[in-house]
Amino acid sequence: MLDRLLQFKDNSVRAEFESGKLHPRLLIVLLALAGYAIVRWGIVITVTDIFRKRTTDSGVHEAWRGVDVRSRDWPKEAADDILRWLNESFCYDQARPTLKVAMIHDADQGPGLSGIHLHLQVSGNPRKGWE
Ligand SMILES: [Zn+2]
After folding, report:
1. Quick one: how far is CA 93 from the chain centroid?
2. Which regions of 1-131 does DSSP assign to beta strands (E)?
3. In angstroms, what is the span from residue 41 Cα to ligand 1's centroid?
4. Angle between helices 76-89 and 24-36 (to 10 degrees)
């Protein structure tokens, strides 16, 4: 059942998901996204990256509070709608309103390769983010 809502780039990403280390709020956002995308757009979510040692990003992947989802093959209208829906539905941190739960950005993959993906993140602050 879940396989029809959520897919993984490879078995190592699946194993990271199944490890139970994902931040619980991030799991909720990811499952909500999977439900929304299939119901509204018929899109099955593919998770491409979960754990990653801190490199150039803020460290949310290293903290199990960040997940990347493939979005380069989504119609622009769907990508825009999904992004809007996520950020309207989930607050990253009330104290830091400029930070978003969802963004679509381009990770540099080298010439000719699209690194466009949807990045999801949740705050590690236990008191914020859900009101
Ligand atoms: Zn990311």
Report:
1. 16
2. 6-8, 45-49, 66-70, 102-106, 116-121
3. 22
4. 140
CB 82 within 8 A of CB 70: no
The predicted pLDDT at position 56 comes to 64
Residue 40 CA to ligand 1 centre (angstroms): 23
Q: What is the pLDDT of residues 75-103, one digit of tens each?
A: 999 999 999 999 999 999 888 889 999 99
Neighbouring-strand partners of residue 45: 6
Instruction: Tell me the domain boundaries of the chain.
Output: 2-121
Cα 87 to ligand 1 centroid, rounded to whole Å = 15
pLDDT digits (tens, 9 = 90+) for 108-123: 666 666 688 999 999 9
Distance CA 2, CA 112 (A): 33
Of 102, 94, 116, 131, residue with least CA distance to 26: 102
**CA of residue 59 to ligand 1 center, whole Å:** 9
